[in-house]
Amino acid sequence: CFSAAERLSPRSSIDIPTLSTMLSCSRGLLVARQAAGSAQMGGMRHMASITRQETDDLKARLQPWRGTNQTPLRIKSHGLQILQNPLYNKGTNFDYGERDRLGLRGLLPPRVLDFETQKELVMRNLRALPSDMEKYVYIENLHDYNETVYHAILCEHTEELAPIVYTPTVGEACKQFGYRFNRARGLYLSARDKGHMHAAVGNWPHIDVHVMVVTDGSRILGLGDLGAYGMGIPIGKLSLYCAAGGIAPHRVLPVMLDVGTDNKTLLEDKYYIGLQQPRLRGPEYFEVLDEFMDAIRCRYPNAFVQFEDFSSDVAYKILNYYRDDECEKRSPVCVFNDDIQGTGAVTLAGIMSGLVNMGKSVHDLPDQRVLVAGAGSAGA
């Protein structure tokens, strides 16, 4: 069973005899037994009557299967558990050998659709939708039940799908996040988990997390405080990291750190899925954040932690604390703030390119007059 993780990262495959090779060997053994049985029935004269062509055919059938250069993954899930796990589910792409081995016979339609046909069908359905928001809902539903196809089309059609999966469509998706919430993805930690952060982080089933994107929902794009609805940002950003950066989907973790919201509309909305309380400030806020970071330090000491869409009043403090000050007291954590460092790096690169186009050197930058308009936290 090939999962999305194995398609993008062969390193995660387990070094065991492949299921396909084992199956080929069993088939070859059956052929050999059939040949032996025929010999016993017909005696040596029957054996002598086997032609060279039949011998060559037998040898060909005994060769190991060479359908792929990737090692299948041995999984513990079985039957419906596989179909309900988006990392393992391949939908109608399971062939009958896999259906028998994995307990899927009778649980899927009889027609086996190959991977290319599945991708073609998804893009056909996607392009038929009239609005970007409907396309977003469709592709995220695919994300929730078949990550193999999801990441494949995202890799192959990045230019077309990036504006759907992330900005600008993700802004509207975040505003509607609670109304279309039907399946949890990532970690949802809140101020109510204070004192239990280590247990909560330990509930995440994957032990090999390399990258996590964390937000508190306080400054989502240009929309302001969206509280728990800001979870759409880490999910969308990590999808692009998997597609453009080649990170295996099971090695990323979106995190919502919910400390309340100051958005009056959300505080009064009976359908809001986050904490309906004023946003924590000061020491209370940093105590929750620090316990979370300590849990990450213990469970995923080598993970890359990206702070995303934190409001400017705390973004610099958090980055400086965990990047510099905290390293002197406890083991360091690799941290990054995209709104400060990412946007700043891209903006600086644009200015340097502009200087080159003006016939100047990058060393002339101190002599230039620069107007900062926007640029988020990086412009502050």
Mind sketching the topology for me?
Layout: H1 4-8, H2 19-48, H3 52-61, H4 80-83, H5 96-101, H6 115-127, H7 132-145, H8 147-156, H9 158-165, H10 169-175, E1 187-190, H11 197-202, E2 211-215, H12 232-245, E3 252-258, H13 264-267, H14 282-299, E4 304-307, H15 312-325, E5 334-337, H16 338-357, H17 376-379
Parallel strand pairs: 1-3, 2-3, 2-4, 4-5
Total number of helices: 17
From the spread of the alpha carbons, the general shape counts as globular
- Structural class determined from secondary elements: alpha/beta
Enumerate the strands of the largest sheet in spatial order, edge to edge or round the barrel.
1-3-2-4-5
Helix and strand pattern: HHHHHHHHHHEHEHEHHEHEHH
Rounded Rg? 27 Å
Strand content: 5-15%
Relative helix content: 40-55%
Low-confidence stretches: 1-48
Q: What is the makeup of the main sheet?
A: 5 strands, parallel
Round the mean pLDDT to the nearest integer and report it: 83
- Straight-line N-to-C gap: 49 Å
Number of strands: 5
